Amino acid sequence: MIRPDWQSFRVGATFRYTETGPEGLLKGKKVYVALARGGKYRNTPADTQVPYLKIVFSFLGLTDVAFVYAEGLNLGANAEQMAINSAYQQIEEAVHPLAPAKAHVETAELALA
Q1: Would the pTM of this model clear 0.85, i.e. be above it?
Q2: What pLDDT is attached to residue 65?
Q3: What's 34's domain CATH number?
Q4: How many structural domains comprise the chain?
Q5: Any idea of the CA torsion for 34, 39, 44, 48, to the nearest 10 degrees?
């Protein structure tokens, strides 16, 4: 697990300096980021998390990043349930290529519920 803080930036371990500048050493890895928010900020100027995380992960060489959003959690019970259902759907879509069979995905969903 990569924590986007200064402990993740280690010369020679997660990045290196080259003649053309820093180079991330964590290439070829998939990153999944879950964002839980009280309001709805996805694809708006108020979304400061996603741009920041993209820069941090890119610096480390991590460019294949999937974001899962659970937004509107503080907008009432109905909005909360819709956000959770949407997040489950996004997770299934994000990890589907990794799942060996549909039954495995359904089992994982049951374990999360």
Answers
A1: no
A2: 94
A3: 3.40.50.360
A4: 1
A5: -60
pLDDT along the chain (113 residues), means of 10: 68 92 94 94 94 92 94 94 93 75 40 38
Q: Does any domain span residue 96?
A: yes
Residue 1 resides in a domain:
no
Q: Are the CB atoms for 14 and 60 separated by under 8 Å? A: yes
3-state secondary structure 47-113: CCHHHHHHHHHHHCCCCEEEEEEEECCCCCHHHHHHHHHHHHHHHHHHHHHHCCCHHHHHHHHHHHC
- Please tell me the distance from the alpha carbon of residue 30 to that of residue 17, in angstroms, as a whole number: 23
State both tokens at 69: 């959003």
- The answer to whether residue 53 is domain-embedded is yes
Which range marks the domain in which residue 24 is found?
Answer: 6-112
